[in-house]
Amino acid sequence: HIIMKQTCRLATMNYYLFLLAASCLCVTRIAHAFVSTQMKPAFLSCSNGILSSKTSSPYNRRRTSVSMESDFASAMPEKPQMSLEERLVKSAGEFVDSVRGNLGEGVDEPPELVALEKAYREDKIDTASLAIRIYELMIEAGMLYDRDPDTGTMTPTEFSDLKNMLDVPEVKAEFQYLYQYGMNLISTGVATVDPIKEVVKERLIERTGLTPEKFDEWLGY
């Protein structure tokens, strides 16, 4: 029974890591994705007029028709690209709705959910702060709740004492992933060092009972 509960808890952590990644390609990749979508691949900049007007074979006429259609499509206004702020707001809203919708009856919402919802509803969005709020909820949703594998319902976890589970490979893997996720937020410029450092210290390191140095050593850094 204990092993089954532990497995469900670890599955919950994996579920919410996957959920966030599926909703926005992960926040750590948003900045890169935003820049990439502003540029057309090189082949799209080539001329579509590849056929001579003297060509009359059925095959070439078909290619000419396709070329004209392509020219027509290229003349249409491009669909507006979402800004980094818009992508983050969309991701945050989807994440909040998903967590809230899966909480069991009578189960309190984590404070991090309310904080994230407030952040993305503000008129002036601070993208770095919003990314931090997403990261915080991402951690807490996985560590505070167990998720029923059949219904998806979230209930308070029965395994909150992670200090005695550090030798479980799956637990170590989850901490390593979450830690690296925070480092990626820094390396991509989505967030700065100090806020991420505080989140890692308070929400990851303190759960293990290790010092920061021992925590890095435990994760192999």
Structural overview:
With 221 residues, the protein is mainly alpha-helical. 63% of the residues lie in helices and 3% in strands. The protein has helices spanning 2-24, 30-37, 58-75, 84-102, 111-121, 127-144, 169-187, 193-208, 212-219; strands spanning 145-147, 154-156. Strand 1 and strand 2 form a beta hairpin. Helix 1 (2-24) runs antiparallel to helix 4 and helix 6 (127-144) runs parallel beside helix 8. The longest helix is centred in the first third of the chain and has 23 residues, at 2-24. The two termini are 34 Å apart. Mean pLDDT is 74; it is low at 1-5 and 17-73.
Oligomeric state as shown: single chain
User: Portion of residues in helices?
Assistant: 55-70%
CA radius of gyration is: 24 Å
N- and C-termini, Cα separation: 34 Å
| Helical stretch tally | 9
Number of strand elements: 2
Order of helices and strands: HHHHHHEEHHH
Q: Per the principal axes of the C-alpha atoms, what is the gross shape?
A: globular
Low-confidence stretches: 1-5, 17-73
Structural class: mainly alpha
> How would a crystallographer describe the biggest sheet?
2 strands, antiparallel
Which band does the percent of strand residues land in? under 5%
Spatial order of the strands forming the largest sheet: 1-2
| Average pLDDT | 74
Helices and strands in order:
Layout: H1 2-24, H2 30-37, H3 58-75, H4 84-102, H5 111-121, H6 127-144, E1 145-147, E2 154-156, H7 169-187, H8 193-208, H9 212-219
Antiparallel strand pairs: 1-2
